[in-house]
């Protein structure tokens, strides 16, 4: 019934985070469809599949894989999740993520440059993004949350976090009304991940100057 619809939509957008509730929502949807749901339920079936993925698979933790005390929640973005090709290509992968085209990553690596020891700074993303899109991107040395929220209305941003002694680029799609950052992360290598993380948690790992690549 209507409760099942609401539960499914909430789970689809990462608003139900308890595994038991996810499984219950999935079962209820399956019963609805088995009983002969209305025609044209392709989208509903797809949503049910997404719920199954949330219920049966742990959240990929990306750059926070080795920090179990940080709580991550499910986030299913509309755009692509682009896993970085190499240990040092997170900036290029973040650009390809914003552009929603994984095939661009290798070409972007040539633009932003590479450093197999330490990667490259996120400011290098500006040239690549401005080459591949009509949107204008700039790098700002320091940004506060109020300004970041405002710029996110124009599209995702790239920030640099440090969770393991090395800087790592991730894409911020948005910040929710209750302060969660919606992240698309190029780690793990080859697949990437997406998750919601409390702003207070990511703030502690955001590089000290808290710069960002944004679309003004």
Defining traits:
216 residues; alpha+beta; 7-stranded antiparallel β-sheet; 8 helices; globular
Summarize the structure.
The protein has helices spanning 2-12, 19-34, 42-56, 90-98, 105-112, 125-132, 145-152, 199-205, and strands at 72-73, 138-140, 157-162, 167-175, 180-185, 193-198, 212-214. Helix 1 (2-12) packs across helix 2 (19-34) and helix 2 (19-34) runs antiparallel to helix 3.
What structural class do the secondary elements suggest?
Answer: alpha+beta
**Helical residues, percent:** 25-40%
The strand line-up of the biggest sheet is: 1-6-5-4-3-7-2
Rg (C-alpha, Å) = 18 Å
How much is the average pLDDT?
81
Terminal residue distance: 43 Å
Tell me about the biggest sheet?
Answer: 7 strands, antiparallel
Q: Per DSSP, what share of the residues sits in E-state strands of 2 or more residues?
A: 15-25%
Order of helices and strands: HHHEHHHEHEEEEHE
Gross morphology is: globular
Number of helices: 8
């Amino acid at each position: 019934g209507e409760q099942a619809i609401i539960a499914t939509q909430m789970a689809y957008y990462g608003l139900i985070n308890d595994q038991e509730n996810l499984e219950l929502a999935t079962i209820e949807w399956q019963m609805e469809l088995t009983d002969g749901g209305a025609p044209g339920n392709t989208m509903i079936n797809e949503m049910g599949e997404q719920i199954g993925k949330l219920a049966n698979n742990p959240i990929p933790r990306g750059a926070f894989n080795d920090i179990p005390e940080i709580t991550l929640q499910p986030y299913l973005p509309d755009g692509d999740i682009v896993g970085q090709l190499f240990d040092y290509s997170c900036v290029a992968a973040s650009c390809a993520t914003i552009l929603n085209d994984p095939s661009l990553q290798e070409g972007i690596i040539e633009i932003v440059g590479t450093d197999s020891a330490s990667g490259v700074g996120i400011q290098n993303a500006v040239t690549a993004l401005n080459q591949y899109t009509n949107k204008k991107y700039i790098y700002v040395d320091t940004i506060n949350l109020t300004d970041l929220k405002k710029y996110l209305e124009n599209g995702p941003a790239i920030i640099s976090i440090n969770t393991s002694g090395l800087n790592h680029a991730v894409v911020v799609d948005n910040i929710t009304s209750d302060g969660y950052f919606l992240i698309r992360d190029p780690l793990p290598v080859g697949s990437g991940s997406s998750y919601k993380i409390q702003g207070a948690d990511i703030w502690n790992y955001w590089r000290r100057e808290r710069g960002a690549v944004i679309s003004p």
